[in-house]
Amino acid sequence: MGAELALMEGGQIQPFAVAGAYLLTKSGRTRTEYQRDLRHYFTWCAEFGRDPFFQKRAQMDAFKNWLSDHYSAGAVNRHLSAVSGLFKYAMAELEDFIVRNPVALVDRKPTSSISQATGLTFVECDLLLLGAQAYSLRCSAVVHILLLTGMRVSELVNANIEDLGEERGHKVLRVTRKGGRQQTIVIPPTAWAALEAYLDGRTSGPLIITSTGRRITRQGIWDMVKRLCRRAGVRMIRTHDLRHTCATLALESGMPLEAVQDLLGHADPRTTRRYDRARNNLDASPSYAIDEKLRAVAARRQAEAALDEAVEVLVDEALREVLATAELAAA
Length: 331
What we know:
The protein is mainly alpha-helical and 331 residues long. The chain folds into 2 domains: 2-93, DNA polymerase, domain 1, CATH 1.10.150; 122-299, Orthogonal Bundle (hpI Integrase, Chain A), CATH 1.10.443.10. It has 13 helices and 5 strands. The chain has helices spanning 2-7, 15-23, 28-47, 57-68, 73-93, 122-135, 137-149, 153-158, 189-199, 218-232, 239-252, 257-264, 286-330, and strands at 8-9, 12-13, 164-167, 170-176, 182-186. The protein has a 3-stranded antiparallel beta sheet. A two-stranded antiparallel sheet has the order 1-2. Strand 4 (170-176) and strand 5 (182-186) form a beta hairpin. Helix 3 (28-47) crosses helix 5 and helix 11 (239-252) crosses helix 13. It is elongated and about 110 Å long. The relative contact order is 0.09.
C-alpha cells in the first residue's frame, strides 16, 4: 500500500513518479539509457494524446513503428525493453490498477548476429597508442587500459586507485561489471607502465581524473578519444570501439572464445562452465596476447624507422663524397 500511496495521487497514477521509482532499480549506463528511452516514450504519448499506462498492443506497435523511423533496430529493441520493464514494475507495485503488459506481445526488430563495427587493426592500434603517448599521460593510460582490457568506459570511470592490486604476480584492477558483479581483470605490462606514469605517486581517489582533480566522465573520455583520433590520423572511432577492438584482436591472436567472453564480462548461459577450473586463469588472460602483439608491431615500426634513418645517413655520406670529388675535379 505504501508504494501505491507514493505512486498515486487523488486516485490517479502518477506516470513520472512510477518511472522515477522504476529507474531507481537500475544503475549506471542502463539507468541513463532507460531514462532517455522513457523520455522518448512519454513524449510520444503526449504527442498523440495517449495515457502512458493504458495502452493496447496495437498502440505499442504504433510506438515501435514510430521508433523505427528514428532509430536502429538495436535502439528500437532497447526502447521496447525499457517500456516493458516499466509496465512490469507498475504491475508489481500497482497490481490493482495495472494488470497487463502490452509490450510483451510486440515483436522485436531482428538484429544482426555479427557486429557491424570493424574495430581497429593492429597497425591502427599502434598508431593510436603512439599518438596517445604524445598527447598526454592521462590519454595514454586511458587508451592503453581500454584497448588492452576491453573494459567498458563506465567501468573505467567508476574505478578507484584503491581497486588496483597484485594477485599471484599479476597486476590487476577490480571492476564492477553490469549488475554489480565484481571481477578482477589483468592490467598487462604496457598498460600498467602507462598507468603508473600517469598516477605519478597518487595513492587514493578516482583512477582517472580531470585537470581540476575531479572524477572524469564518460563524455570526457569520449572527447579525449575524438581529439586523439584527429591528432593520430586514425579514422574516427567511438570509445566502445576500443572494447570491440580488444575482442577482435584477442580472437585474431588465437585466444579461445571463452577466455575473451570472460575478459569482457559477457554473460554466459552455459552453466557447465561454472565448473571449468581454468575459467578465471589470469595466466591465460587475452590482455597479454594483445599486448605482446602490439609490442611486436611497435618494435617492427621502430626497426623500420631506424633502418630508414641508417639508409639516409649512408646516402648523405655518399652524396657528400660525390660532391667533394666533383669540387676537387672542378678546381
